[in-house]
Design the sequence.
């Protein structure tokens, strides 16, 4: 029996990482042949300061079950202060998402340096397992299928898609 | 309970002061244009007006129906108002906070403005007819929690004595506390129902003094970060983006909520973010120009307990 | 053929239709505001408040899918929406100002191009109008030649009677069919006195005179004067029962997605923005002028009617108090 059928649900995790630290850290994990869940899809950015909160929204809307944002430790930013700005922005954004009703356990922030292959494995594994236990993120997926009443057409395909969530 | 919270004579006195100042400024050529309020057709209603001649100064009024934040007309997004020369503008305390915010963001220069401040008891809620008497029931929610009845730092502030303000329970703080206490799924259900009503008329964006981007992120399609159609998905994304882009900038005029034709409680999002930014970074919108808002600066000691 | 139906029988009729699987759309309170929406049961209907959005969305949805696509390898599969799937609908409790706008929309959507999305929904819908009993000073149906008892656009028309129940008049085959199919719920008219109807105060405007002025004044200082304060949102067009502009966008990913049609508004800066970057309506007064011109001139040029039924929604919701009734009145007095 393969892993997929064992668990029934394989979470999709999107990781937004900075190229200088976390991406290098993930690369180190790979070259060191460390094992970590294949659920994570890595998107590389120049800096955490470039990661717009709207990317996180878009990820959830397009089917992510969990999102990781990771960059350089404070003081190590290649652009001196990008991660300090990001830290404030995400502190605020978390509060907004929480107020809208998003479960913050699905959104993880971390500092992973180029030398921390082990920490990368730990962060990714923890988030994947946490999200796996929570089950799929249905809120945004349901939303994507909803229409204003006037635009609703009762098609069997739509019902099927809805029930599939 | 029908508490009359104000004495109308103040409004007459303020109107008189605005008119005589406008006449003086336009006659002397100290300003080229004045943005203020004028009476409109419906009984008791008021609307923004732009005047360039002292002959029109008598059209200016100030009443509890003067709900607009006129600061929006001074932004670069509004190209219709002639921007050459000094501009006179009638401002309530809440409107002044928006102007101060725009100055902090280098959108306006203090020396290019002539601020006609108005002492304000409060304005009418958007849900009542414009001719309604201003009472504890009909006052706008933002005014219940107002700390800026008297704008400060204006070029003119009519010398009138504000009547004593009754203590009114803050509706936003109560509603935020109620929502915060709900389980996340119920909060999601609340906002889902509210955002579902949105028709993407963008009135909230268009009246906001801080939405001065010449091209909004949500109007762009390369990349299309937010779906433009008025469906639950795109609506939710739009309102989250809007609240985030205003976090640490919003001055609390609540125009977004007032103008929403679908009565979506948008200012709840803004108040919630203001509350969080106060707690996290000790920031509040006020009458002092800050060159850096809370999200455009940082300290090395900022909280990072949420980061692994 | 005038009939009588009691409030109770009207509710029974609606519940019966709902049970039969017919979509019954009526004003109800939705998340705090009155909107035309499908009813789950007849008790939900509220008739004493004007819905915030007009009844046009029953035929011209806020947003609707018109096509979907799916990509597999090099193959792209396109799927059209089948209008046969639009639900049978009874639209009830429609204000005269909303009902009168429907024939106005019919003209546009069945002109050179037959819009099957609109027309199929229209074919499947029976409209039950309701004489208006509440007006405020934003209402101006009387200014544009309509009235709180206007029956244009309705298949059946109800008038609330003093002492309860409704006088019911049929104006089409659809209306007849609804009465005949539910004969036991209607009785002969008892000639009761109608409940006092709303009395909007707006005086009748000479629409031909307004049009004649507009014909000559494309460029006029009036536009700057009234529209310098317009902030460029789409609220007026979206709540309007007669505005009918729409946009078509593709939404989705490279694998699959949908083509959707949704409301658009001439107040938006983007409405006339060309791909080249040029915008022929570069300032807000030019955009606002188009709103007035379309309603009182262009539509009249093409279809011989006015594109405004005086519901007053735009007057109530305009963020900056722009009052179309006052503007047309001003033109009328020129």
Sequence:
């Amino acid at each position: 029996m393969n892993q997929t059928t064992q668990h029934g649900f394989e979470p999709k995790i999107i990781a937004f990482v900075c190229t200088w630290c976390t991406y290098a850290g993930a690369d180190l994990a790979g070259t060191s042949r460390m094992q970590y869940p294949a659920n994570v899809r890595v998107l590389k950015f120049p800096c955490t300061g470039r990661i717009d909160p709207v990317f996180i929204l878009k990820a959830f809307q397009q089917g992510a079950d969990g999102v990781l944002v990771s960059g350089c430790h404070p003081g190590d930013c290649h652009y001196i202060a990008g991660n300090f700005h990001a830290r404030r922005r995400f502190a605020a954004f978390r509060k907004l998402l929480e107020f809208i009703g998003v479960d913050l356990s699905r959104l993880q922030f971390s500092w992973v340096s180029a030398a921390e292959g082990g920490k990368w494995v730990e962060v990714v594994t923890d988030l994947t397992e946490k999200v796996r236990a929570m089950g799929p993120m249905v809120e945004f997926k349901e939303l994507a299928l909803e229409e204003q009443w006037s635009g609703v057409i009762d098609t069997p395909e739509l019902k099927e898609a809805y029930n599939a969530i | 309970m029908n508490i009359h919270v104000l004495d109308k004579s103040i409004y007459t006195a303020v109107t008189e002061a605005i008119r005589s100042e406008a006449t003086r400024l336009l006659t002397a050529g100290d300003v080229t244009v004045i943005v203020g309020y004028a009476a409109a057709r419906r009984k008791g209603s008021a609307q923004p007006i732009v005047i360039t001649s002292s002959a029109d100064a008598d059209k200016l009024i100030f009443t509890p129906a003067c709900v607009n934040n006129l600061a929006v007309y001074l932004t670069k997004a509004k190209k219709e108002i002639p921007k050459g020369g000094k501009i006179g503008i009638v401002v309530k305390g809440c409107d002044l906070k928006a102007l101060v915010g725009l100055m902090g963001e280098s959108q306006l220069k203090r020396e290019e403005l002539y601020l006609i401040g108005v002492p304000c008891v409060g304005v009418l809620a958007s849900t009542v007819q414009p001719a309604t008497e201003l009472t504890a029931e009909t006052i706008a929610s933002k005014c219940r929690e107002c700390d800026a009845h008297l704008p400060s730092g204006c070029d003119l502030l009519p010398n009138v004595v504000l009547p004593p303000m009754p203590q009114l329970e803050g509706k936003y703080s109560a509603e935020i506390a109620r929502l915060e206490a709900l389980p996340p799924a119920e909060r999601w259900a609340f906002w889902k129902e509210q955002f579902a009503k949105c028709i993407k008329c963008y009135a909230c964006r268009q009246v906001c003094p801080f939405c001065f981007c010449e091209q909004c992120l949500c109007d762009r399609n390369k990349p299309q970060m937010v779906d433009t159609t008025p469906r639950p998905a795109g609506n939710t994304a739009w309102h989250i983006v809007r609240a985030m882009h205003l976090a640490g900038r919003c001055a609390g005029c609540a125009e977004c909520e007032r103008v929403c034709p679908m009565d979506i409680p948008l200012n709840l999002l803004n108040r919630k973010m203001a509350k969080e930014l106060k707690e996290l970074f000790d920031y509040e919108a006020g009458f002092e120009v800050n060159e850096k808002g809370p999200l455009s600066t940082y300290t090395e000691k900022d909280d990072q307990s949420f980061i692994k | 053929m005038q009939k009588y139906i009691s409030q109770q029988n009207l509710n029974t009729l609606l519940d019966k239709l709902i049970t039969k699987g017919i979509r019954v759309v009526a004003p109800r309170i939705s998340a705090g505001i009155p909107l035309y929406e499908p009813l789950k049961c007849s008790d939900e209907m509220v008739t004493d408040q004007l819905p915030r959005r007009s009844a046009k969305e029953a035929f011209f949805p806020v947003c609707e899918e018109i096509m979907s696509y799916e990509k597999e390898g090099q193959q792209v599969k396109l799927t059209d929406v089948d209008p046969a799937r639009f639900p049978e609908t009874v639209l009830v409790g429609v204000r005269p100002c909303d009902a009168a706008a429907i024939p106005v929309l019919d003209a546009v959507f069945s002109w050179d191009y037959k819009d099957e999305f609109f027309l199929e929904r229209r074919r499947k819908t029976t409209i039950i109008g309701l004489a208006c009993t509440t007006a405020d000073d934003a209402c101006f149906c009387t200014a544009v030649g309509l009235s709180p008892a206007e029956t244009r656009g309705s298949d059946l028309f109800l008038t609330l009677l003093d002492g309860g129940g409704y006088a019911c008049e049929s104006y089409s085959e659809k209306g007849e069919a609804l009465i005949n199919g539910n004969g036991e719920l209607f009785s002969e008219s008892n000639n009761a006195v109608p409940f006092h109807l709303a009395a909007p105060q707006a005086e009748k405007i000479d629409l031909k005179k307004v049009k004649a002025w507009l014909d000559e004044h494309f460029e006029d200082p009036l536009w700057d004067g009234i529209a310098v304060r317009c902030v460029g949102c789409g609220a007026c067009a979206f709540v309007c029962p007669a505005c009918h502009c729409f946009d078509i966008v593709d939404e989705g990913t490279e694998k699959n997605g949908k083509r959707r049609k949704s409301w658009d508004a001439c107040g938006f800066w983007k409405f006339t923005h060309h791909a080249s970057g040029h915008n022929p309506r570069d300032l807000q007064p030019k955009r606002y002028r188009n709103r007035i011109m379309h309603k009182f001139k262009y539509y009249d040029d093409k279809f011989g009617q006015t594109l405004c039924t005086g519901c007053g929604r735009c007057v109530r919701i305009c963020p900056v108090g722009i009052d179309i009734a006052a503007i047309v009145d001003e033109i009328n007095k020129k």
